[in-house]
Amino acid sequence: MSSLENSNRGALAAMPDPATFYRRKFLCAAPAGGGKGKRHPGKAILAGGIAGGLEICCTFPTEYVKTQVQLDERAAKPMYKGPLDCAAKTVKNHGFFGLYRGLSSLLYGSIPKASVRFAMFEFLKNNMVDDKGKLTQVQTLLCGLGAGVAEAVIIVCPMETVKVKFIHDQTQPNPKYKGFFNGVGTIVRTEGFGGVYKGLTATVIKQGTNQMIRFFVYSNLKNYLQGGDPSVDIGFIKTFCIGGVAGAASVFGNTPVDVVKTRMQGLDAHKYKNTLDCVMRIIKYEGLKAYVKIIFVDLFYKGTVPRLGRVVFDVAFVFTFYENVMKLLDYVWETN
Fold first, then answer.
1. In this predicted model, what pLDDT tens digit does every residue of 109-126 receive, in sequence order?
2. Which sign does the torsion angle of CA 285, 287, 292, 298 carry?
3. pTM
4. Closest-CA residue to 199 (of 161, 251, 250)
5. How many CB atoms are closer than 10 A to CB 221?
6. Do 260 and 278 meet the contact criterion of CB atoms below 8 Å apart?
7. Residue 53 within a domain
8. Where is 328: in which H helix or E strand?
9. Measured between alpha carbons, how far is 62 from 311 in angstroms, rounded to an integer?
10. Which residues form a coiled coil (predicted)?
11. Does 186 have pLDDT greater than 70?
């Protein structure tokens, strides 16, 4: 055998396999202090955005019904007897895709919202984990809270305001919004830039506590199923289930805030000066006793059934999509 043949065989043997070569092309530096239990924020932004887009396409019909039912309860002549009646009448009058009216306003916000949420959570987590890659219970709560506040201020408040106004507008005899961008332009022209930041305080409280509860419950259940070992893969089904549990836990703690936020962001938002004024008007015109009933039993929780159905699947889908997209990114994008 010639020396040339030996040289060629040696060169071929030294070449990496295609999968390894593909991964190396995506090699990127990890965040400072990277180590066990830490995820690259770039991965979180990408995985979060993809997960957010997929999730909202799966769950928007329940969001539409929830918003319609809550707004309808304040109408002089309610149109719907409940969430099922709302869904049935919408399909009858507008077809199946009538349940997707207003999707664009939420889809445009869902992708960056999930990106900001997961990126902020991973960023805070990276700076808090110990040498074993673990967080204390308080640190987990703080990471979730920070993620929720960040998404509320940057994305959720303006996008939710537009979404609620858009959906509410479609129920009027002569809708004035012809589409997402037309709706945003109309709101800014008529109400100013502050028109898309109605209910900011309620939104920050809602999103902050929402994500605090969700990440806390999800992280603890995941850690339990992993037996304390972050490297253990719990699988698609278990991830979906604990995501749903985390979503359900957040619903019962935040439904009152969600309804106040919906009132603040509807077309009748001009009646309220701010979030506190909205609450005070409920007390003034409906009475303190009625207000307590609203919070714990009646009005606030009339929207719970459709909201529970939406949020359980919403959170289950987004965590499941996020974890699985992250697995793919870990394979093609190696960080050290």
1. 789 999 999 999 999 999
2. negative
3. 0.67
4. 161
5. 19
6. yes
7. yes
8. helix 304-332
9. 9
10. none
11. yes
CATH of the domain at 169: 1.50.40
Q: Is 16's pLDDT higher than 70?
A: no
Query: What per-residue confidence (pLDDT) applies to 161?
Result: 79
Neighbouring-strand partners of residue 28: 335
Count of C-beta atoms within a 10 Å radius of residue 187: 22
- Residues in CB range of 105: below 8 A, 6 or more apart: 159, 162, 163, 166, 180, 183
Other residues' Cβ atoms within 10 Å of the Cβ of residue 213? 23
Query: How far is residue 283's CA from residue 298's CA, in Å, rounded to a whole number?
Result: 14
Calculate mean pLDDT across residues 233-245.
95
Q: Domain count for the chain, please give it.
A: 1
Q: Using CA atoms in the order 274, 276, 277, 280, what is the torsion angle rounded to 10 degrees?
A: 160
Provide the pLDDT confidence category of residue 287 given band limits of 50, 70 and 90: low
- Three-state DSSP class for 28? strand
* Burial tier of 244 (Cβ tally within 10 Å: 0-12, 13-18, 19+): buried
What's the DSSP call for residue 227?
T
Within a 10 A sphere around the Cβ of 144, how many other Cβ atoms? 29
Q: Which amino acid is at 245?
A: V
Share of the chain above pLDDT 70, in %: 76
Residues of the domain holding 114? 36-328
Spatial contact of 40 and 28, defined as CB atoms under 8 Å apart: yes
Per mean pLDDT, which of 81-85, 95-99, 212-216 is the most reliable?
A: 212-216
